[in-house]
Amino acid sequence: MKISLTKQSVLEIQADVVVVGISGTQSLEGAAAELDKATGGAIGRLIDSGEFTGKIFSSATLCPGENVVAPIVFLVGMEVSGTSPGPIRISSQVAGYAAKQLAKRQRRTVAFFLPTPSMPDAICGAMVGCTGQDLFRKEKILFPFEELIFSGCDQAQLEQGRILGQATNLTRHLVNLPAADLYPESFVTLVQEALEGLPLEFEVWDESKLQEEKCGAIIAVGQGSDRPPRLMMIHYRGATPSDPVLGLVGKGVTFDSGGLSLKPSDGMLDMKCDMTGAATVVGALQAIAGMKLPVNVSAYCGLAENMVSGNSFKLGDVIRTRSGVTVEVHNTDAEGRLVLADTLDVAVSQGVGNIIDFATLTGACMVALGRQVAGLMCNEQKWCGKVLKSADTAGDLAWQLPMFSLYNEQISSNVADIKNVGDGRWGGAITAAKFLERFVGDVPWVHVDIAGPSFADRASNWVDAGASGCFVRTLTVLAENFDSADADAPTV
Q1: Residues 40, 101: one domain?
Q2: C or N terminus of the chain, fewer CB within 10 Å?
Q3: 226 lies in a domain?
Q4: Looking at residue 19, which CATH number applies to its domain?
Q5: CA-closest candidate to residue 379, choices 404, 361, 412, 398
Q6: What tens digit of pLDDT does each residue of 270-279 get?
Q7: Which residues are catalytic?
């Protein structure tokens, strides 16, 4: 998809459709005022008749006539009532909404004239909005445009928006791929191809290296599959060696059958998305490296398939993790925390300054917070506050859950050091986080359970169903503001 900018007026631009944003209906400004004048007050009449309200996600279509070069004008409302969701979220959602509506039929060129304070995010939103999950449909549902044209921004903003859109769509693409195409080894190959040309260093541990490194938890989860596990590390060094390293850790269970604790069919259908955590940190690193942010970042993706065979790990097994902590298995469907246990330990042993991990970890988090809000848990409030602030800036919805020490009792085991589930169904998102906490030591750490917002069964106004690409933007904001004050751990 070509992304370009224009200095032409809304009346002159050559495009299949021109999108014009209207932030208020009391007085038209900018491109909207110019267009209204050229069409003899057509926009004003739509507003007066109530056919167009100007509120967010309202729209109207004009065929403007001979005074306007473009044959179609798509008016989109940008007015938000009540508490504002923030300029990034508004910009992204408005542009995404317009692009998604227009992508329902093939269009070569669409030009955007949006009065928004966050043009890069509008560009990202438009790229995401016109791209669907219909990867294998002969008759497409959405048709990505050949070219997007934007007014009201400079080249630097245009490039930032293009990078953010590309990175978010990379995360979505990886998650939307079926498990037959995306498994640990192919995940590594696809990511290396997608990130080719960026200033990144890759390190991949195959099954032999995982055995050598005593990654018993990753090995256990993956041993029931014919496709062996992997641990992929990607390093970006945008700052000096004396600066700390931000560690991004992602759960990459490329398919989760539940293992011997087998999921029912309805619960297994979307389990291709159980690698969204790994896809999220990959997309974020593509954006961070593409934007050449002055920060050191390392991404760690623990990759495994949780399948059923004669070699599957079993209930009652005791796993020795890389850190030496032993885990009694009470549920093979609580496998993501096992993969993350070894992955977190590798990140800690490599000296990252701060860690944030992403995982589609628990249904309990969705019970607590719903399908649109991620749960955050941490071992240091200062670091968690910075992550929450970044999410708020980026427009990703997150809420902190408590980590009281009393939850530790629920993962204690009489056989091993800990067990991989809590006592019963209560507080499941938190007991999962308490499990992970055992593997980060004193390194400031935040766990983000994205089981809810990362994948949707139904489309929203601004993005198709399937993978959402949430929190890629949060991580770019976090990386932009990460400095030595955030970390006391060893540097590279």
Answers
A1: yes
A2: N
A3: yes
A4: 3.40.220.10
A5: 404
A6: 999 999 999 9
A7: 263, 337
**What does pTM read for this prediction?**
0.96
Question: Edge-to-edge strands of the sheet including 73-77?
Answer: 2-6, 147-151, 109-113, 17-22, 73-77, 59-62
Instruction: Decide: 306 and 221 in contact? Cβ < 8 Å.
Output: yes
Q: The dihedral of CA 27, 31, 35, 38: what is its sign?
A: positive
Calculate mean pLDDT across residues 225-247: 97
Do residues 229 and 317 both lie within one domain? yes
Same structural domain, 116 and 46:
yes
The tally of domains found in the chain comes to 2
Same domain, 99 and 47: yes
The pair of structure tokens assigned to 412 is: 């204690």
| Per-residue tokens: 332 | 């093979």
DSSP class of 79? B
SS3 at position 290: helix
> Which residue, 94, 115, 150, sits at the end of a domain?
150
Residue 487: pLDDT band with limits 50, 70, 90: low
Residue 338 domain-assigned (yes or no): yes
CA distance 464 to 140: 12
Same domain as 183, residue 134: no
More confident site: 491 or 257: 257
Domain of residue 30 covers 12-150
Asked whether residue 5 is domain-assigned, the answer is no
Token reading at 133: 């999950």
Based on the domain organization, do 134 and 193 belong to the same domain?
Answer: no
Share of the chain above pLDDT 70, in %: 98
Which parts of 179-233 fold into alpha helices (H)? 184-194, 207-212, 216-222
Convert the pLDDT of each residue in 159-181 to its tens digit: 999 999 999 999 999 999 999 99
Instruction: Calculate the alpha carbon distances from 297 to 217, 248, 350 in Å.
Output: 25, 7, 12
Give the burial class of 382: count Cβ atoms within 10 A of its Cβ; 0-12 exposed, 13-18 middle, 19 or more buried: exposed
Give the orientation angle of helix 184-194 with respect to helix 276-290, to 10 degrees: 20
Task: Please provide the size of the chain in residues.
Answer: 492
Q: What does the pLDDT look like over 407-425, one tens digit per residue?
A: 999 999 999 999 999 998 8
Tracing tokens 């060893």 back to the chain, one arrives at 490
In a domain, 3, yes or no: no
Average pLDDT value for the chain:
95
DSSP bridge pairs for 328: 318, 419
